[in-house]
Amino acid sequence: MIDRRSLIVASVAAMLPLEASAASETRRPTLKTFDYGPAKLDIYAPDGAIGLPVVFFVHGGTWQFGKRSQVDAKPAFLLANGFCFVSIDYRMLPQADVATQAGDVEKAYAYIRANIARHGGDPSRIVGMGHSAGCHLVALTGMRGGLPGIAALILNDTRAYDLAALARKGGMVRAYARVFSDPAQWAALSPASHVDGRRHPPTFIAYSRAPGRGEDSKAFAERLRATGTQVTLFDGSAYTHMSINRDFGEDGDALTAAALAFLKSTVG
């Protein structure tokens, strides 16, 4: 497991100052918006880019709120470090249920894979990234094979990995109880249900200090490791549920350093 203090000492000091300052110089990168069918997505790419790895981001918001523009420093930081970045909208509850939302994510990914080369991205080096509800949707679609050819996953802070286990522990409350009200759907909508004997894409799992996040993330990580999947587990107990997403790409952020090292090791 990655220790926050060791990352600050070993990684942030060595890696981030130049890269983060590069991001600050391009804090407002330009974007292009496209309609992928159910909703729209934004593509951020450096001018003249050719064959860059791509980070494909799915926002959170309890499956009911949020929008693709809520990306904070992510586009600037990732473009400064040699990536294209894509952020998507997807249909929200109550207009669309979670199964439909997962289908939207898969449609957006298919659009990106088919079109990103013309914007300077490499369709064979796409990394799926999500926070909160978006983390669940990326994990679900990635584990069930709905993101064919995905190079890696970055999963940032959800409890919705195994819904039946969550219910047994008394965690099926508040937003989870409203969104996942039908137990008959829990298996199909649980990323853990789709972790079988095959090896899955390399996966980075981060958790905050919000109740239950560490326990549930560790359990999912162990389930993945049992298949031979490469898993990096980040202890983000110094973060709140919101700051673990908001601080990504900011100067000196430990999660950013860990995620960047993971990205460099998986997609270059």
Outline the structure in words.
Helices cover 39% and strands 18% of the residues. It has an 8-stranded mixed beta sheet, with helices on both faces. Helix 1 (4-25) packs across helix 2, helix 1 (4-25) packs across helix 10 and helix 3 packs across helix 4 (133-143). It contains 10 helices and 8 strands. It has helices at 4-25, 74-80, 98-115, 133-143, 163-168, 174-179, 186-189, 213-225, 243-246, 254-267, and strands at 32-35, 40-44, 52-58, 84-88, 121-131, 152-156, 203-207, 231-235. The chain is an alpha/beta fold and 268 residues long.
Count helical runs: 10
User: Biggest β-sheet, characterized?
Assistant: 8 strands, mixed
Helix-strand pattern, N to C? Answer: HEEEHEHEHEHHHEHEHH
Shape: globular
What is the total tally of β strands? 8
**What is the structural class?**
alpha/beta
Helix content: 25-40%
Compute the CA-based radius of gyration.
17 Å
Low-confidence sequence ranges: 3-26
Main sheet: which strands, in order across? 1-2-4-3-5-6-7-8
Work out the strand percent.
15-25%
Quaternary form: single chain
Distance between the termini: 22 Å
The overall pLDDT average reads: 92
